[in-house]
Design goal:
signal, Lipoprotein SmpA/OmlA domain-containing protein, alpha+beta, Beta-lactamase Inhibitory Protein, Chain:B, domain 1
């Protein structure tokens, strides 16, 4: 055997290891369906309001963040902070409140209805 042939054979051995067996495809089973999104919907006096109505109630928001699908308005008065998340109920429709978070300035959760009442006192 010539040295050239032996060298070629030796260099091709690592490549032989790359031709392993392909594992068979497995079928995908989706996880079981959970509760509908409506099961997580909070109720309250602010749900369904648009940005104009919130601004009439609480004044100019401290934050007004707009993203592709959501608008977040934040109102605060030193005693509580209220974040209202507005989503459009359909194409071409005005975004409305679908979720509200309320907390003290220190970060402790509070009832959003009582925070809203506090914010209205200004």
């Amino acid at each position: 055997m010539s040295p050239r042939f032996a060298l070629a054979a030796l260099l091709s051995l690592p490549l032989a290891a790359c031709g392993g067996v392909v594992p068979p495809a497995t079928s995908y089973t989706p996880p079981p369906a959970g509760p509908p999104a409506s099961a997580f919907t909070k109720t309250g006096p602010l749900m369904g309001m648009d940005a104009k109505r919130l601004t009439q109630m609480f004044g100019t928001p401290r934050l007004d963040i707009r993203e592709t699908t959501v608008r977040k308005l934040q109102f605060a008065n030193g005693r509580c902070v209220l974040d209202a998340y507005l989503y459009s109920p359909g194409k071409g429709k005005e975004p409305v409140v679908t979720h509200v978070d309320a907390r003290t300035p220190a970060g402790t959760d509070v009832d959003h209805a009582s925070c809203a009442a506090t914010l209205q006192q200004r």
